[in-house]
Amino acid sequence: SDLVRDWLVKMESEGYSAVTRKQALCALKFAFDHVLRRDLGQLDLPPMPKVRQTLKVIPSRDELVGIFQQMTGQARLMAGLMYGAGLRVNEYCTLRVKDLDLAALTVNVWNGKGDKSRLTVLPRIMIPALQRHLAWRSQLHERDLAAGDGLVELPGRLAQKYRNAPRELRWQFVFPSTCVREGNRWHATPESVAKQIRTAVGRLGIQKRITPHTLRHAFATHAMRAGADPRTIQDLLGHESL
Fold it and tell me: How far apart are the first and last CA of the chain?
């Protein structure tokens, strides 16, 4: 524990941010509790400064149009859902075929942040592209099944409860990875979207720092500017407080 304390004190003296220091402390606590099975003890650390709220960088609608036009493939669709449906990064990565209701223009988000589920909107303008993507996704799943694969990991004990579900199309990830391991096709990673966004921002000469999560901020800001009710936006985002 003395070594841990000395390292964290050194981080403070070298000017590491409060967020970084808290993250390091949490990682060490987890490692001691669940890996080493040892008590970390009292560290007697200097007080952590209050984390300051940062300004949100919001791209304009014109900037977003330019960014989307530079993007291709399923990364463009994933970015479009972040902006059009207000999804978090992990939510669009783990979205399953059954969660999209193109007729009702809704997206079901299961076990989101705080283990909460919610219903959010699906932009009408994205329907044709999503229909083409889902048709391709169905063909990919058929090829996986023909190759003896076609499995997908299910949450909790659903795979034990519904034996055939891991091979059903409706449980497959909407945005698949190219990687298949032990018969399982995983979902795409956030980096596949972030990389294309960085490239697009660079090509367009946009000086704002824009990440995939920025698109979720833009969803909220642009919806409010369009006159949407703040409480409705809160529910669509899945925020506990306004």
Answer: 40
Residues with Cβ within 8 Å of 119's Cβ and at least 6 positions away in sequence, in order, are 106, 107, 108, 109
CB 220 within 8 A of CB 84: no
**Non-local CB neighbours of 89 within 8 Å, separated by 6+ positions:** 82, 190, 193, 212, 213
Query: Which single residue is written with the structure tokens 């964290």?
Result: 8
Arithmetic mean of pLDDT, 190-194: 93
- pLDDT of res. 93: 93
In this prediction, residue 111 carries a pLDDT of: 81
Q: What is the pLDDT of residue 35?
A: 87
In degrees rounded to 5, what are phi and psi of residue 238?
Answer: 80, 30
Question: Which of 94, 139, 100 is CA-nearest to residue 119?
Answer: 100
**Following DSSP, what letter does each residue of the chain receive, concatenated?**
-HHHHHHHHHHHHTT--HHHHHHHHHHHHHIIIIII--------PPPPPPPPPPPPP---HHHHHHHHHH--HHHHHHHHHHHHH---HHHHHT-BGGGEETTTTEEEE-S-GGG--EEEE--GGGHHHHHHHHHHHHHHHHHHHHTT--B---STTHHHHSTTGGGSGGGSBSSEEEEEETTEEEEPPHHHHHHHHHHHHHHHT--S---HHHHHHHHHHHHHHTT--HHHHHHHHT-S--
Strands 106-109 and 100-101: antiparallel
Q: Please give the average per-residue pLDDT across 2-12, as a whole number.
A: 84
